[in-house]
Amino acid sequence: MLKNWWLTIVWALIIFGLSIMPGVSLPAMSWMDYLAPDKLAHAIVYGIFSYLVIRAYSSDNQALSKHMILSVLITSGYGVLMELIQGNFFPQRFFEVPDIIANIIGSLIGVLIYNYLHNRKPRVT
After folding, report:
1. Cα 26 versus chain centre, distance
2. Is residue 72 part of a domain?
3. Of 70, 56, 49, 50, nearest to 1 (Cα)?
4. Per-residue DSSP letter, 25
5. Is residue 79 part of a domain?
6. Residue 71 near residue 53, CB atoms below 8 Å
């Protein structure tokens, strides 16, 4: 079981490390913050994370839709947790709703990519 999860755990630790690194001072928030380049980075990082989570689950013989929902919940929840940790425990880091939204969007995209690739594979009967 753990052999299916090791890469996912390493990725979660990388996200944690990146989340607690000192940040930069932020200007006042505006709607443009939703389009900032770092939001794309958040979406990519959490897309990879959700892809790894669903891939680890895929070794089980359960319904793919259940895995997709669990993957999005786990990775989105982790993203919210990282934002809470940043905002409460690291003075140079900030809690940002746009980051949470980018994390959730990335999580959704990651499972959609996995689903697309999974359904493209020819099935052996």
Report:
1. 23
2. yes
3. 56
4. -
5. yes
6. yes
5 domain residue, yes or no: no
d(CA 25, CA 13): 24
Residues 80-105: tens digit of each pLDDT? 999 999 989 988 888 999 999 999 99
- Structure confidence at residue 7 (pLDDT): 94
SS3 label, residue 17: helix
Placement of tokens 């786990």 in the chain: 74
CA 80 to chain centre: 10
Number of domains in the chain: 1
H or E, element range at 124 = none
Q: b vs e for 58-88, b when ≥16 Cβ sit within 10 Å of the residue's Cβ?
A: eeeeeeeeebbebbbebbbebbeebbeebee
Q: Domain range for residue 75?
A: 36-120
pLDDT band for position 121 (cuts 50, 70, 90):
low
Q: Identify whether 17 is part of a domain.
A: no
Q: What is the pLDDT of residues 23-69, one digit of tens each?
A: 655 454 555 665 677 899 999 999 999 999 999 987 655 667 888 99
